[in-house]
Amino acid sequence: MSEMFSMTDVTVCYDNVEAVRNVSLSVDEGQIVTVIGPNGAGKTTLLMAAIGLLGSRGRMAFRGSDLGKMSVEDRVERRLCLVPEKRELFSDMSVADNLLLGSYSLRDRSGVRKTLDEVYDRFPRLRERQRQAAGTLSGGERQMLALGRALMAKPALLMLDEPSLGLAPLIVREIFRTIASLRDLGVSILLVEQNARAALETADYGYVLETGEIVQSGPAKDLIHDPRLITAYLGGH
Amino acid sequence: MTSDIAAILAIDGIATGAVYALVAIGTVLIFTVTRVIFIPFGDIAAFTALTLAALDAKRFPGTGALVVVLACLATLIEIISLVRNGDARLLPRALLFYLVLPLVVVGIAWFTMRMDPPLAVRLVLALMLITPIAPLLDRIVFRPIADGTVLLLLTVSVALHFALVGLGLLFFGPEGVRTEPLTSFSTEFAGVLISGQTMLIVLAALVFSGLLYLFFDFTLVGKSLRATAVNRTGSRLMGIRPARAGTIAYLLGSLMAGVSGILIAPVNTVFYDSGFLIGLKAFVGAIVGGMTSYPGAAIGAVGVGILESFASFQSSALKDVIVFSLLIPILIWRSLASLHSEEEIEE
User: Does the beta carbon of B223 lie under 8 angstroms from any beta carbon of chain A?
Assistant: First the structure.
């Protein structure tokens, strides 16, 4: 598999504090990669830098082109897509409008209708609520809308920040099932999660981020059996 | 006050209010998309009236020179910023939008003017000449401080208004103008004479508000503007560029202000500095709508118009004092009513 997205020695600072230090990671085409770690480890910061909302030092490349000074909007046009932790929905606007805006960056608009139908098929709840304002949805429905909106952009690399945060266990399972199924669409995924077990069960490869640094990495199926991780993150047995 | 007089004052007030409503809607549009409280919208309205008056008098309006100067400045600033960011490949595009397009607009106006065009064409020319001003000012003044606080943006906006008043004196001169009425039609309704101009003002306000509503609800660009207003980060993550959304908002807002200038010119004598009061009264209207609601702003602006009309009957000298005193209870009411805003922002 060829490398799609890579970060090399990336450092992100808030004022003078380094929130992320010399992080290197990569995502191959069609791969699901997860970054797990405790609260405050710098996981969200890492994704914010990857999409360009935060400035960073180091090298970032996507399909051979240097992301360097590229703006958020330019990255989105290259089909990098972030579903942030806060979802960032357009709460006053309808579910249908939110989804439509997801496709804003697509130059070729001929397939938008079809993609919208696919998203509705994937999340029938959204079809039922298409005229409802996004702000009136439940937590699970919002996450579905955020995911659906990102899929409208036909992403090549989908970055998900804590998709299970604040959701009921049943819905968490549904969200992770959806994430796993995106692999069939050819979407590569960079998944940042506190729910380490669910993330590692879904992913192909995993990185462990602690206080801004990668402390461990490996195939997800190995990490899930790692004694240290079991004690620290997987609710040790 | 008899009921006849009250009816006349009310109709007069609604017409004035409709003019304020157009400017107020433009003010809300710009504020929600860019967070700038664009005080100079009144100046844009006044400049449109002055432009139309010059065109009526077969003189080429000072607006042309103003647009050329602003276009050159904006182009220079854009080139410097592109070169500094290493984005030299975007230079042709910058030249097209910031220099060529405004110059083409001025050129078209200049050529068309020599052909002694009819009133309808002069109206279009006046609007064409006025619409580039606000987007160019945005590039020159607001884009470099786009991430500043609302207070900083407001302060700069007020300063910009004073600069524009100075430029207005330079480019249009100190004389006041009153353009020919757009229609001489009038009709009597329930014993009260209503002029065609009044009806035209109200109709134009309704049509333009309606068009704006359709634009926001049925076009992707309109929706992208709403999205930028609702959630800036969210819209950037969709690939919506805030700067581009801002430019579209300024163009639309200028168009609204321009139309209001054209409508007010045959009714009031307009000077280079008349815009301030128009802008400020529209601002009061916009505050009634909490600076975010279009219907709220329109209703507020019409309310201001009616209040002003009755106030000028009671005490002509104090009418502005009465109108602006309205701000105090409104601000108290808004500050009490917006206690929940923090919860609304939270998802």
Answer: yes
Per residue in A161-212, pLDDT (tens digit) is 999 888 888 889 989 999 999 988 889 999 999 889 899 999 999 999 999 9
Taking the model in full, what pTM does it have?
0.89
The ipTM assigned to this model is 0.93
Give whole-number Cα distances, B209 to B23, B25, B291, in Å: 11, 8, 16
Inspect the interface and report whether the beta carbons of B241 and A73 lie closer than 8 Å: yes
Tokens at A35, concatenated: 């970054």
User: How many angstroms separate the Cα of A39 from the Cα of each of A209, A224, B129?
Assistant: 10, 19, 56
CB contact under 8 A, A105 and B239: yes
How far is the C-alpha of B87 from the C-alpha of B81, rounded, in Å? 9
Are B16 and B313 in contact by the 8 Å Cβ rule? The answer is no
Q: Which two tokens stand for residue B5?
A: 């007089």
Q: Which stretches of chain A are assigned E, i.e. beta strand?
A: 3-14, 17-28, 32-36, 57-62, 65-66, 80-83, 157-161, 188-193, 205-210, 213-219
Please give the residue of chain B at the shortest CA–CA distance from A86: B347
Alpha-carbon distance of A213 to A205, in angstroms, equals 17
8 Å CB contact between B266 and B54: no
